Amino acid sequence: MRVQVNLSDELVQRIDESAYAIGMSRSAFCGFLIGQGINSYEQAKSLTSSLVNTKELADALVRSAVKVGSAGPDPAPSVTARKRGKKTATV
Fold first, then answer.
1. CA-CA to 39 of 20 to 30 Å: which in 8, 82, 84, 85?
2. Which pLDDT value is given to residue 53?
3. Are the beta carbons of 30 and 16 closer than 8 angstroms?
4. Is 15 exposed, middle or buried (0-12, 13-18, 19+ CB in 10 A)?
């Protein structure tokens, strides 16, 4: 399929030099670059989606841990206080 785009003279020169250096035509080189760009974009989108899913899972685990841990006293404040040299009473 034919696609037409407008590019600066400087960019066309860079494309031509790069294509020539690896023995490709301008058209083949542009197609290659566009394909690489789309693949990179799709990978980044997939990774971003995976990170969002991982964060949602981590948030859910934290919420579950808070619900489970909320039945008793939170040991963290007394540990922090002991590190500061304060005496605390455990109930």
1. 8
2. 80
3. no
4. middle
Task: Give the tens place of pLDDT for each residue, 25-66.
Answer: 999 999 999 999 999 999 998 888 888 788 888 888 888 877
Which 3 state secondary structure label does DSSP give 13?
A: helix
Residue 24, classified by CB atoms within 10 Å of its CB into exposed (0-12), middle (13-18) or buried (19+), is middle
Mean per-residue pLDDT for 6-22? 97
Q: Is the CB of residue 29 less than 8 Å from the CB of residue 19? A: yes
Handedness of CA 13, 43, 3, 7 (dihedral sign): negative
Of 3, 37, 40, 33, the C-alpha closest to 15 is 33
* Cα–Cα distance for residue pair 7/15, rounded to 1 Å: 10
Residue 22 burial by Cβ neighbours in a 10 Å radius (0-12, 13-18, 19+): exposed
